[in-house]
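Encode chain A's predicted structure.
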Amino acid sequence: MSEPDPVAAARADGRTTLTEAEGKRLLASAGVGTTTFRVCADADAAVDAAAAVGFPVVAKVSSPAVTHKSDWADGAGVVVGLDSPGAVREAAERILDAAAERGIPAAVLIEEAVPLDRGTEVIVGGVRDPSFGPVVLTGLGGVFTEIFEDTSHRIAPIDRAEARSAIEDLRAAPLLRGARGRDPADVDALAAAVVAVGDLVTDHPIAELDVNPLLATPDGVVALDALVVLEDA
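Encoded structure for chain A:
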């Protein structure tokens, strides 16, 4: 059975913000690799999901009402390095209790824990600019996004050559090429992800799409988080 269209599902619910799971499904539909994850309604399901995904795992709040998960509920929104059923249960219960206290609908997203040292954290995003229309950006991601502000922009849609050019414009490009003994990232896969994000913003009523971080590794790319905000209906 195929997954429902995430944008259509949000529209049907009267929402402009997709959950992380919906955002990742949208990315996967465009060919961008994501983490393995499951969305769970309660702590028991979260424990079962962790066993299926494989320890260690990450637990996150899954709710369209929460866009910045790491800052939510005094850090309850993202819990990393969970390596036992008991740790998963505790994290899930904390998430659900915090959501209940705030009166918001929420579930728990359980996903595989991907070591960040496997690659370079990149941000790939898109916006619908009032003057230029769809714009796609790429840059150094993770905690470094706001520190270094190392990004390049292109009017979407773009092709693979333009995406490569945008990547090469970054001051961080040598990191992706394997500076100081690092294994080089699969820049072709990264360029394909940049093209895909540009196409998504072009083809859907998306006001903002942020994939941060997108981990660029020697074996490809994997979206560790995704935020999608739709235009008002």
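The chain has a mean pLDDT of 95.
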